[in-house]
Design goal:
By secondary structure, this protein is of the alpha/beta class. It contains 4 helices and 5 strands.
Length: 106
């Protein structure tokens, strides 16, 4: 028997899908650009585009992934690895509240 401690982000894909759908339904935007490589969002992208008649695109930070997102989006762009790396905040930020450090896996 072994103990496993696993930190995993949960729910952000659902939150993004629900918010994008709600905002489209409420006519809060004309065009959405979702920064994601998560193919779980393909149905939300399809509904936004086909049923709610909004322009929706995907900006994928993980090139080569999520081809099914591409088939439902009005536009699709991959972010090159060097551009993504150059766009990140510094490894360490500090303000009056304290210090924030970037995880080494980023």
């Amino acid at each position: 028997m072994a103990r496993v401690w696993r930190i995993e982000e949960k729910g952000s894909d659902v939150n993004l899908a629900v918010t994008a759908l709600l905002d489209a339904f409420n006519n809060d935007y004309d065009c959405a650009a979702l920064v994601t490589g998560d193919s779980d969002l393909k149905e939300a992208v399809r509904i936004i585009r086909n049923d709610l008649k909004k322009t929706v695109g995907v900006i994928n930070p993980r090139p080569g992934k999520a081809a099914d997102l591409q088939e439902h989006a009005d536009f699709y762009k991959s972010i090159r690895k060097n551009v993504l790396a150059a766009s990140q905040l510094p490894d360490r930020l500090e303000d009056s509240v304290g210090e924030i450090t970037k995880p080494t896996t980023w």
